[in-house]
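Hey team,

Filing this mostly as a record. A colleague (T.K.) asked me to run one chain through the structure pipeline before their review meeting, and I want the input and output archived in the tracker in case anyone asks later how it was produced. No errors, nothing strange. Just documentation.

Input sequence:
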Amino acid sequence: MEYIYENQRDTYEDFASGRVLLNASGTTAFPVKLASEIFLRGRSYLRSRSEKKKYSLFAENYIIIE
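Output structure:
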């Protein structure tokens, strides 16, 4: 998959498991860059349909992206 929105070489080490995001014991962490790309693609799609609302990404009682 080619990244459309997350195409800069930013570091996401501050979001590494244990710093900000926590993952369940014995599971691998979900890639932050990929999660951001999926969210931004979804937001772009909804905005293209003239749905200019505020969107949030939730994961088990945590707001990840607003």
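Quick notes for T.K.: The helical segments are 32-48. The CA atoms of residues 25 and 50 lie 40 Å apart.
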